[in-house]
Amino acid sequence: MSHGITRRTAFALGAAAGVSALIPGGRGGLRPARAEAATDTLTLYGAPIGVSLPLAHLVDGNALRPAVGNTGLTIWRSPDEMRAGVAAGRIEITTSPAPAAANLYNRGTGMRLAAVLTTGMLYLMTTDEAITRIEDLAGKKVLVPFRGDMPDRVFQLLLESAGMTVSDVAIDYVATPREAAQLLVAGQAPAAILQEPAATMAMMRGLSQSVRVRRAINLQTAFGEATGRGADIPMAVLIVRDSIRERVPGLPARLVGALKRSTRWVNNNPASAAQLGEDYMGLRAPVLERSIPHMNLSVRTPAEARSHLEFFYGMLGRQSARLLGGRLPDSGFYLDVG
């Protein structure tokens, strides 16, 4: 996914380097920080997928005022980049893959859960008309981005539920969802595990090249059928560091409330949200607009999501305890945001 500097993300990069004399706000350009704010500047960090669209809307409207004078948004390129930023102390608020959030907490970084941001946006995309079930992938090459992270882990869980293992398919790990989408359309493999908006990107790129790419399996539905817990994969979450909570008391609750409003706006205004996403995230608006209905964006508080999240963590922990930092996160992981 693109990580280019836009007129909005330029602020976030500057703030990370300690530049805070003038801060870009929304569409009006540069604004001075407001004196009454509890903190003058705050950079939010987001994944290169759909869960960052509500963050873009929140930042564009400066929805955290007056607790925060100005906000910016930086899109990280991979979960490894996000983890490195947290470890270095640069990142205080970020979206995160759900297992990475638990791992960071268990490692003592002070990052805690503020919200779950989606019920899942993973799909098995294919150019092969014969693929309709997980079992149909036996012996076939499957492109998977972000080795060891959400697309890979969920795919392995579904292979297991189908009585298969990774040795029954030929997994080709690639660096990013964009790369996987491009290779799928180019015919380098008949199938790929893609999250939004890369899944929609693959379909639209294929259409322009007379290659039919389709959604063979909704992984949320498949997960629900395998577990009996409904079509719900709590794959992406928002985490907040203790340091910003100490500087701005009440910020997590304010942030989650604003995110709920922004998420409703994104779901109800896909065309406008897509343009905002192009401005902030460097992704094409036509792709984002068609992708939003498949993102399953929602905001659940830790209290609302804990039972389902702990079930999911239990499944992941059976794959690899190291994935979660050796254990399930304790109750301190789950913030009370009202």
Word description of this protein:
With 338 residues, the chain is an alpha/beta fold. It folds into two domains: 9-119 and 234-333, Periplasmic binding protein-like II (D-Maltodextrin-Binding Protein, domain 2, 3-Layer(aba) Sandwich), CATH 3.40.190; 122-227, D-Maltodextrin-Binding Protein, domain 2 (3-Layer(aba) Sandwich), CATH 3.40.190.10. The chain has helices at residues 9-16, 52-60, 79-87, 98-106, 150-161, 177-185, 198-208, 219-227, 242-247, 251-268, 270-281, 285-291, 302-319, and strands at 23-24, 30-31, 39-46, 68-75, 93-97, 111-118, 122-126, 141-145, 170-174, 191-195, 214-218, 236-241, 297-300. The strands form four sheets. The protein has a five-stranded mixed β-sheet, with helices on both faces. Strands 5-12-6-13 form a four-stranded antiparallel β-sheet, sandwiched between helices. The chain has a two-stranded antiparallel sheet with strand order 1-2. Strand 8 (141-145), helix 5 (150-161) and strand 9 (170-174) form a beta-alpha-beta unit. Helix 5 (150-161) crosses helix 8 (219-227), helix 7 (198-208) packs across helix 12 and helix 10 crosses helix 11. The longest helix is centred in the last third of the chain and has 18 residues, at 251-268. Residues 1-36 have low confidence and may be disordered.
